[in-house]
Design brief:
- This protein is about 40% helix and about 25% strand.
- It is of the alpha/beta class.
- It has two domains: about 80 residues, 60s Ribosomal Protein L30, Chain: A (2-Layer Sandwich); about 190 residues, Phosphoribosyl-aminoimidazole Synthetase, Chain A, domain 2.
- A seven-stranded mixed β-sheet has the order 5-8-4-9-6-10-7, with helices on both faces. It has a three-stranded mixed β-sheet with strand order 2-1-3, with helices on one face.
């Protein structure tokens, strides 16, 4: 699963731009004298399995002896210039869609503490290992104005990138956000990774939070994601069609989480 998730995370950048992945190279760091070799094989096999699902080949790569296990892919893709989707171009009047729930960072912290619920772990792993292939393949079909995948900088960090480059502001409705089961309980107990805390510290510079949102809820919104979904800006009519089409074909439904407005002092408002 480590290999599958790492591969899905890497390939996601191509899908987020409306592109088609072509091939990939492995990057592997592994403590060869401290762990059984079959673990390396299992990680690499996970990458191959996910690459096969994406219909691409892994054609080589690089490996080193490293104390901390690391694995990822360098992925090359292509897209017609007129179909290129960027993390800019969002327009006032657009609405925002998110194609995966939030909370993988917090659940990962719970796994390390050995207190995460089994259903939390199962759903988070399934989501992280799921390619953004379907969502990426229909971005141009529904005339999407901007999109990005939500990964380490979290929903607010990646959302702010779109806001700055598009000269707009986002309104996000907290009650519309979907979190994996168990995320709220873990966050309440302070089981939050350092990356998510740094994300929130940074996001407070450009985000206006409703007074009704507690600190742990704000951490949930800012949670650092691994292999998260696509954050998409598009007109309301197109969004309705996107959700209807996409949700018929996936086990993890897309949801409408907010709207795009003329630029204000706060890049993002969460209410």
């Amino acid at each position: 699963m480590f290999g599958q998730i790492a591969a899905a995370n890497a390939i996601s950048d191509i899908y987020a731009m409306g592109g088609k992945p072509l091939f990939a190279l492995n990057i592997l760091g592994f403590p060869v004298n401290d762990f059984p070799k079959h673990i390396i094989s299992a990680i690499l096999q996970g990458g191959v399995d996910k690459a096969n699902e994406a219909e691409i080949s892994i054609i080589g790569g690089h490996s080193i002896d490293d104390k901390e296990p690391k694995y990822g892919l360098v992925v090359t893709g292509e897209v017609l210039k007129e179909n290129l989707i960027q993390n800019k171009g969002a327009k006032p009047g657009d609405v925002l869609l998110l194609t995966k729930p939030l909370g993988t960072g917090i659940i990962s912290a719970g796994i390390k503490k050995e207190i995460a619920r089994s259903d939390s772990i199962k759903q988070a792993i399934e989501s992280m290992a799921m390619l953004n292939k379907l969502a990426g393949s229909v971005l141009t079909k529904f005339s999407v104005n901007a999109a990005t995948d939500v990964t380490g900088f979290g929903l607010l960090g990646h959302g702010a990138e779109i806001c700055r480059s598009s000269n707009v502001s986002f309104q996000i409705n907290y009650n519309n956000l979907i979190f994996f089961p168990g995320v709220k309980e873990l966050a309440k107990e302070g089981i939050v990774p350092g990356g998510s805390k740094r994300n929130l510290l940074y996001a407070k510079q450009f985000t206006s939070f409703s007074d009704s949102l507690s600190e742990f809820e704000r951490l949930m919104i800012a949670d650092a994601q691994t292999s998260g979904g696509l954050l998409i800006s598009l007109p309301q009519d197109n969004a309705d069609q996107f959700i209807k089409y996409y949700n018929r074909k996936t086990s993890i439904p897309a949801v409408q989480i907010g709207s795009v407005h003329t630029r204000t002092k706060s890049l993002i408002t969460v209410s």
